[in-house]
Write a structure and sequence with these properties.
Blueprint lengths: L17 H23 L23 E4 L5 E3 L2 E3 L1 H15 L9 E4 L5 H13 L6 E2 L6
Parallel strand pairs: 1-4, 4-5
Antiparallel strand pairs: 1-2, 2-3
Helix pairs in contact: 2-3
Length: 141
């Protein structure tokens, strides 16, 4: 006589994928939004064709300054004068004074921008207390 167990196999609980799909969609929306905001800080400029420094480490740019072909200064998508730029740089330096990170703004100057505009911008940043500035270049093809 055979006695068969009443429950063959294991009981499995159904896996509900809805919360995981919700989280994936929220992450997707977050990354798309932040990528769009990052593009707003970059103005359309033709960078100088230079090889530049080959460095594997990446540093966060707390301030991105764009100098357009006509010599105007654009920060975060808005035209800015040098006085406002100085105030922004001073507040950035003051925020990082207690921390261990170094303030190194990124300056993106158009290749046809007047050199005087770049010099004025660098002078303003230096007077605001910025120790070093990174200048963006296009390494070319």
């Amino acid at each position: 006589m055979r006695i068969s167990p009443s429950h063959r196999g294991e009981r499995t609980l159904p896996v509900d994928m809805t919360p995981m799909i919700d989280i994936v969609f929220q992450l997707l929306i977050f990354f798309l939004t932040t990528a769009q905001l990052a593009q707003l800080s970059l103005a359309e400029v033709e960078l100088p064709l230079e090889r530049g420094e080959a460095s594997d480490e990446t540093a966060e740019a707390g301030l991105i300054v764009n100098i357009l072909a006509d010599g105007s200064v654009v920060v975060a998508g808005q035209a800015t004068d040098l006085v406002a730029l100085s105030l922004m740089a001073e507040s950035l330096v003051a925020e990082s004074a207690g921390g261990d990170r170094d303030v190194r703004p990124l300056v993106r100057a158009d290749r046809s921008a007047p050199a005087a505009a770049l010099n004025r911008t660098l002078s303003v940043l230096q007077r605001a207390g910025v120790g070093a500035v990174r200048i963006a270049t296009d390494p070319g093809a």
